[in-house]
Each structure stands twice: as C-alpha cells, then as structure tokens.
Design a protein that fits this description.
single chain, about 170 residues, mainly beta, SH3 type barrels, 2 domains, six-stranded antiparallel beta barrel, six-stranded mixed sheet, 12 strands, elongated, disordered C terminus
Length: about 170
Amino acid sequence: MEAPLLVGRVARAHGNRGQVIVNPETDFPAERFAAGNVLIVEHEGGTVERRITAVRFQQGRPIVSLAGIDTMNDAEALAGAELKVPASALAPLPAGTYYRHDLVGCEVRTKDGRVVGTVTDVQGPLERSLLVVAAAGGEVMIPMVEGIVLEVDAEARRILADPPDGLIDTHAGE
C-alpha cells in the first residue's frame, strides 16, 4: 500500500461549528482542500478518513469543515493533526515541475561532481521554490530555477545543480 502524502496540518479550531484552520503543505491548496475531497487525518496515533464538507480561504489558508467534526471541542481536539492524501490522488504535473515529496531526500551534486548534500525541505511557492539542502557545512538554500538546477531525476533521487559562485559556501553554516 502506498504511503499517504502530507498536504496540510490543522493549526487550530475556527469558530464554534467545528471548522479548522489548516496550514497547507502543498503548492495546490485550492485543489487539495476542495469540498468533496477525502483527507486522511492522522492524529495522536490514530488515522481516520474525513470528507471535506465546506471550505473557504482566509489569508491564503483554508478554513475547512470536515464530516463528523461538528463542534468547537471536536475541532480543538484536531489541533496538530496531519492531513494527507494517497499518492494516487495527485494529478501528473507539467514537465519540469515536481511535487515536494519527489524532491525531499534527493542528493544534490554540482555539475563538477561535488556532493552538496540531501534535500530536507522545499520552501516557497511553486514559482519561487527553494531547495533546503543539508550540507556538510550547514543548511544551504538553492533556488529551483533554470540555470541553477540543471536536472532532476526524481526516480534516481538525484539533482544536478550549477549554483553561482559562493552560494553554497556563503550560506553553509549561517
């Protein structure tokens, strides 16, 4: 069975009708948190599927109503819950774009073969993504832009980069 993929975390309850505010962990919050979608809710060692019955966005964050969560107390109990979807629920992306889970864990090397480190996170929106790389000298942020990221082989878990002079050394250890 495929591992479910994180798309958001419940920040806190909102109002008194069982709604929750979600901190999205996806570049596609409107698609992931649409009414009718089913989320896998993981919290305190338990897992349950819940259908989204209503959603609206406030300051870029979804405010979600989930089936079976009807009171403020129910919603408060979900604080910190991880919201996931099966990998099969994700649509294919256009060429040259990647889901975060495709990039996290990839080894980054420079075009001259130097190992930079391993991607631990991807920050920022799709059009301005930064690879967060755990390097020997500390954390390095590499812009995910043409000319710097030359090749991504998600299946082989490798990224080939040509960072500008000083990017890796300047940022490592800050």
